[in-house]
Description:
The chain has 366 residues and is α/β, with parallel strands linked by helices.
Amino acid sequence: xxxxxxxxxxxxxxxxxxxxxxxxxxxxxxxxxxxxxxxxxxxxxxxxxxxxxxxxxxxxxxxxxxxxxxxxxxxxxxxxxxxxxxxxxxxxxxxxxxxxxxxxxxxxxxxxxxxxxxxxxxxxxxxxxxxxxxxxxxxxxxxxxxxxxxxxxxxxxxxxxxxxxxxxxxxxxxxxxxxxxxxxxxxxxxxxxxxxxxxxxxxxxxxxxxxxxxxxxxxxxxxxxxxxxxxxxxxxxxxxxxxxxxxxxxxxxxxxxxxxxxxxxxxxxxxxxxxxxxxxxxxxxxxxxxxxxxxxxxxxxxxxxxxxxxxxxxxxxxxxxxxxxxxxxxxxxxxxxxxxxxxxxxxxxxxxxxxxxxxxxxxxxx
Length: 366
């Protein structure tokens, strides 16, 4: 069901100063170029990964996490253990199940596993944990709760800023929309960046493109991270208000948005998140203006390989435009539909965000 609510779960903001201080310690993931069949892993190394709701074929963050995991185990020449979660009640039992199999590295994919990960890490200090999309600060003291947890997080507001600018440039209706799965900071940071990008377009061009679905505090949420009626209702409400660009943030809820767009009979562009959805879900490729990417697969792969080689590092990694941990996907089928000047403008904005001349506010920078 579509709901309007104030952004919550802001406790993670308290940790921002610590994260930013440590960010320089975490190296940006880079694709491995090894072709020697893998260097092997230290004796007894067993990596395991537990998904968030939506499973391994959500065409989003779970699937990306599994992709990086599989690439890492292949490079190391070992087998790993992957367990999918169907509901939130699976989180703790699934983590315990991999611990019972003597896993030495446990990766939890998604911020909604943070509480279960914190509890498990505290009870198993000899096991290495990796948290995707959450720093695991359940007591809100500004620090990751346990010394055996490595956070991999992404300042997606930076890439979403570019998407907001591009959407405002493309929109003929002068109305663009967004809605989220749930009002977690890792969801609303997309919406924050998107809003700032739209606002920047208006400021630079003297335009008045309106963003519907997020005002910086309150917005529209489906209360779900999977396709279904709640996501359909959220998307329909925005389409009924006349938007011609739509950004759904959260797992596979974009599939419900795509169905609403097709049923509308109007020309409405869709935006993807996490993966380049044009590549992961070609069925909606013709609708996609672009996707806001976070390179979860690369981060997971590099972390698992490093741990397998005995070089596990708990320093947080924060993906940014500068270290290529986040970015905007190509326009693909919309290449000829966007302004001829748009890509050059986006390149200039990217340079400005990196050098600080164009500030982007996010929960990681407050």
